[in-house]
Amino acid sequence: MGLCLGFESALQYWLTKGEDEAVPEGTDTGRFAFAQASSRLARREHLPLEPSEKRPLHLMVPNQTVKHRLDGFEVHVCSTRLPEHSFRRLSGDNLVASPGLTFLQMAPHHTLWELVEIGCYLCSTFSISERGRDYTGEREQLVSLDDLRRYVSSLPKRTYGMRQARRALEYVVELTASPKEVHLAMHYGMPPDLGGRGPIAISANQIIKIEEHGQRLLDEHHLKGDLYLSDYRSDLEYDSLTYHTGRFRLDHTQTRRNVLEAMEIKTISATHGQMDTLQHFDDFTWLLEERIGREHSEATKDQRSAQVDLFQWMNDRERVLF
Questions:
Q1: Domain ranges, ordered by start, for the chain
Q2: What are phi and psi of 294, to 5 degrees?
Q3: pLDDT tens digits for range 204-220
Q4: Cβ neighbours of residue 88 under 8 Å, at least 6 residues apart?
Q5: Which CATH topology does 179-314 take?
Q6: What is the pTM of this model?
């Protein structure tokens, strides 16, 4: 008998998990049948998250008979027959919804943009703060895009949220390494009808083998393209002030760019100043298309409205993921 974290609490648990924190192993889905909602258990168990006035702790229970109203908690009944890989085991008998189940639980309550962003974050290689935003460090990927797809496909037909989850997965880009890379992947991965500037096929942190001379210059055997545009043999990079300033970093960035160009891989760098206003981002998009040889297209009135809304939504500094 234990507690099971789900919904927003599971999302917070996964997205804030740092590099040095162990990732819990999967467990038999049947264990969920013993999940409880108990203030006594909550006080006794050492859960990774605690409830607060602004952010209740979300618990899952298997049926209505064990659902109780608890101060500081939101209790959800989940009677759907869930497939394997739905839960991970925390300390004792406590569980947390797996990344796949967490993504499904977010689907009915979020817009397509929000769900695509959540999917990118779950499949990323970085953590964010407990505030629900802002990069805090690198970590291993929690779940692959293929695993998310397999999980959603394994659900019983007509599962609540399944249709929305499948649609969002069409635009999720895995292995992004920062929030800005997520935003660029969404802008250029989605079509104009959804507010995007694409669709362009994107692979984040694509391994690019480099030749002997480049290996010696960089002291590396391969590079990773931030956002590799395979149809255009081009690499779109986000150059942040944090990681691309200073003599060594600047030298490495320029050498990296020279090596890619020598391999006939076109590079273009996005910076904060090119993404801080809509006009700047429009101009950057024109330059990107010119650089990679993509035809400039003119958005319809509705498409332009969606692009403006997407840009403003992504640049809202008050917005959080949970």
A1: 4-169, 179-314
A2: -100, 140
A3: 998 888 888 878 887 78
A4: 23, 24, 25, 26, 27, 95, 96, 97, 98
A5: Endonuclease; Chain A (3.40.960)
A6: 0.91
